[in-house]
């Protein structure tokens, strides 16, 4: 479903990576590991349409990302990508359900349908009982499960997670990884998980290492 071919990126004279190839199937979780500074987040950002490659192509369901057109790229990202960040990035002044509904508003879903879909997404991550609370009252693990519900509420084809367990202790990390895995399998999204955590990498179906400017099985 996700098809990356010959991807290259440099900042300045030294190449961060070159000729990166990557395929991710529907419902598959692939971990990207590698030393700090090897370019994992940059690779994720290029696949997300937040950054552009110097060379190479990224295709989703056969369609190439429109890197040459800012407006088309923003629309593509909004419709097809769900993002989970290390620091959750929930808006503190909105309720949990309102946070989860945000991607629906951005994608033009009618307001009458948004709350119902947000509650269904929260049901999937077993947090519907917390729908009316503010994010500040949740544990880290709960906050990240809300972020997973928000990332998937608009049924994106691609789920991208950058250090999703980086702010969690091992117990919460385990719950979040179980949730992430179950949700990816349920929705059939293709998932890329950038991580330094052996626990998180082990929860994925495959592990790839970015090192020496190339991506290879870990
Ligand atoms: N916009 C930018 N301009 C210049 N250099 C950048 C830019 N973005 C990233 N870099 C550099 O590219 C290198 C790779 O950064 P990146 O964040 O992709 O690495 P990473 O493998 O995700 O690291 P970490 O594991 O520490 O998060 C770093 O040396 C970083 O300073």
Features:
alpha/beta, Rossmann fold, 6-stranded mixed β-sheet, 4-stranded antiparallel β-sheet, 10 strands, 37% helix, globular, binds adenosine-5'-triphosphate
Could you explain how this protein is built, in words?
The longest helix is centred in the C-terminal third of the chain and has 18 residues, at about 170-185. The strands form two sheets. This protein has a six-stranded mixed β-sheet with strand order 6-7-8-3-9-10, with helices on both faces. A four-stranded antiparallel β-sheet has the order 2-1-4-5, covered by helices on one side. The chain is about 35% helix and about 25% strand. The protein is built from seven helices and ten strands. Helix 3 packs parallel to helix 5 (about 140-150) and helix 4 (about 110-125) crosses helix 5. The protein has helices spanning about 40-45, 70-80, 95-105, 110-125, 140-150, 170-185, 200; strands at about 1-10, 15-25, 30-35, 55-60, 65, 80-85, 160, 190-195, 205-210, 215. The protein has about 220 residues and is of the alpha/beta class. It has a single domain (about 25-55, about 70-215), classed as P-loop containing nucleotide triphosphate hydrolases (Rossmann fold), CATH 3.40.50.300. The site of adenosine-5'-triphosphate (ATP) has 10 residues, from helix 1. Adenosine-5'-triphosphate (ATP) binds next to helix 1.
């Amino acid at each position: 479903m996700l098809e990356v071919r010959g991807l290259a990126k440099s900042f300045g004279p030294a190449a961060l990576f070159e000729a990166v190839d990557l395929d991710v199937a529907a419902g598959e979780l692939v971990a990207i590991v590698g030393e700090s500074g090897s370019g994992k987040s940059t690779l994720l950002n290029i696949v997300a349409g937040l950054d552009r490659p110097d060379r190479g192509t990224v295709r989703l369901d056969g369609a190439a990302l429109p890197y040459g057109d800012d407006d088309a790229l923003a629309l593509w990202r909004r419709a097809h990508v769900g993002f989970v960040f290390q620091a959750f990035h929930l808006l503190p002044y909105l309720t949990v359900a309102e946070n989860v509904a945000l991607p629906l508003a951005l994608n033009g879903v009618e307001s009458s349908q948004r709350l119902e879909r947000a509650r269904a997404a929260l049901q999937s991550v077993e947090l519907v009982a917390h729908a009316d609370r503010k994010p500040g009252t949740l544990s880290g693990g709960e906050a990240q499960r809300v972020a997973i519900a928000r990332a998937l509420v608009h049924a994106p084809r691609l789920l991208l997670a950058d250090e999703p367990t980086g702010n969690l202790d091992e117990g919460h990390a385990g719950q979040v990884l179980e949730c992430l895995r179950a949700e990816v399998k349920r929705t059939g999204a293709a998932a890329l998980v950038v991580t330094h955590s052996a626990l998180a990498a082990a929860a994925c179906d495959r592990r790839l290492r970015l090192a020496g400017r190339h991506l290879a099985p870990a």
